[in-house]
Amino acid sequence: MTKTSGQSMALRKYSDYLARHGLKSTVQRDLIISEFFKSRGHISADELHAKLRETHSSIGLATVYRTLKILADAGLAHERRFNDGFTRYEYYAPDDTHHDHIVCVGCGAVEEFENTEIEKLQERVAAKHHFKMLDHKLEIYGLCAKCAAGDGGAQKK
Amino acid sequence: MTKTSGQSMALRKYSDYLARHGLKSTVQRDLIISEFFKSRGHISADELHAKLRETHSSIGLATVYRTLKILADAGLAHERRFNDGFTRYEYYAPDDTHHDHIVCVGCGAVEEFENTEIEKLQERVAAKHHFKMLDHKLEIYGLCAKCAAGDGGAQKK
DNA sequence: TTCGCTGCAAACCATTTGCACCCAT
DNA sequence: ATGGGTGCAAATGGTTTGCAGCGAA
Questions:
Q1: Which tens digit of pLDDT belongs to each residue from A76-110?
Q2: More exposed terminus of chain A, fewer Cβ within 10 Å: N or C?
Q3: CA B43 to CA A155: how far, in whole Å?
Q4: Looking at the domain assignment, is residue A156 inside a domain?
C-alpha cells in the first residue's frame, strides 16, 4: 500500500501552480497553507487568520483571503457556503471522490459523507430536465447526537 | 376536485400572522406580496424592488426586505442562497412537498424537481451519522439544453 | 392617539482592492 | 533591479437598522 501522502502531493501541486503562473513563494503563504492543511476541513478565512495571529501577529487578513483564493484556483481547496453567512474553505485533493456535508444546526459541527446512489439519482434528474450536470451541492441540516440529546449546544461562533 | 387556491390560502395565513403578531396591513406590504406571488419562484429582493418601482416609484428597498422577512417568518416563503451572491425568496405553501433545484450556470435559469428516492437516502445518511435530520438542500448545477447547445447564454444578471 | 410602518441614509460585515513599501527571484 | 507580495485602510455590495415623519387601528 505505497500511497504518496496526500499533503506532500498537494504541496507539490501548489508550487507547480505558483511556478506556472509566475507567482512567488513567501513566508506568509507557507504559513497560511501549512495551517490550512493542519486544520483540515471547513475553515473560514477569519478562523484561519485568528489561528495564525496566535503565533504570527503581523499576518493580514487580506493575505489569508488572497492565499485561499490561490489554493482554490490551484484546485486544492473548495469554497463552501453553508448557511452561517460566510465562506469556508475545505481541503480538496485532486483525486478526492466527491462528498457532501451534514451540518449540525446546534453546534455547527460538519461531517462529510459520500453516497454514490444519490449521485446516480442526481444524474438521472439532470437528464430528465435536459441539463448537462456539472456540479452539485447537497447539505443535510439537523442535530447531531449530542445536541439532539440535551443542551442547546455551545454554539461555536 | 375542489381545491382551495393556494394563493388565497396563503393570503389568509399571511393576515392571520399579522394579526397574531400585532402587525399592520399596509399598501406597501400588499403590493410587495402580490407582486411576489405573481412572479412565483426564486426572486431576489432587488429584482422584486425593481419590478415594483415600475409602477410605484416610491417603495423603498428596505421595505421589500422587511416584508420578505415577514413572509419567511410566516412560513410562506423560503430564503434560498444559490451561488450568485444574493438571497432569493421562493413561494412556499404550507402543504408544498419539499423540492430541490437544478440551476443553469449559463443563463441562470432555475427549475424545480422532487425525488422521494433521494429524500429517503438522505434520511438514511442522517441516521448513519446519528443526526436528527431537520432540513436539507440539494442543488444541481449544470447547463440547460439551450446553453449546452450553442451560445454562452444571455447571462440573466 | 397610539404604535407600528416607511423611506432614506447610514451602518453592517464578509470580502476585495488600491497603494506604498517590502522582498523573492 | 523588477515585479510580484504584504499590511493597512478604504472601497464594495448585499442586507440591516436608526430615525423622523406617516398612517392604520
A1: 999 998 888 889 999 887 677 788 999 998 888 88
A2: N
A3: 31
A4: no
CB-based contacts of B67, cutoff 8 Å, min separation 6? B28, B29, B32, B33
Q: Which residue has the cell 427549475?
A: B111
Residue range of the domain that includes B65: 3-91
Contacts of A142 in chain B (CB under 8 A): 126, 131-135
Q: Are residues A78 and A122 in the same domain?
A: no
Predicted local confidence at residue B139, as pLDDT = 93
Query: What is the amino acid identity at position A38?
Result: K
Same domain, B122 and B45: no
Q: A142: burial class by Cβ within 10 Å (0-12, 13-18, 19+)?
A: buried
Does the global pTM surpass 0.85? no
Asked whether residue A46 falls in the same domain as residue A87, the answer is yes
Q: Are strands B132-143 and B100-104 parallel, antiparallel or unpaired?
A: parallel
Q: At what angle do helices A27-38 and A61-73 cross, to 10 degrees?
A: 70
Task: Determine what percent of chain B falls in helix, strand and coil, rounding each to the nearest 5.
Answer: 45, 20, 35
Question: With a 7 Å cutoff on the CB, does B150 touch strand C?
Answer: no
Q: How far is the CA of B48 from the C1' of D5 (A)?
A: 43
Q: Check if the beta carbon of residue A122 is closer than 8 Å to that of residue A136.
A: yes
Give pLDDT tens digits for A103-143: 998 888 889 999 999 999 999 999 999 999 998 999 999 99
- The span from the CA of A69 to the CA of A33, in Å, is 11
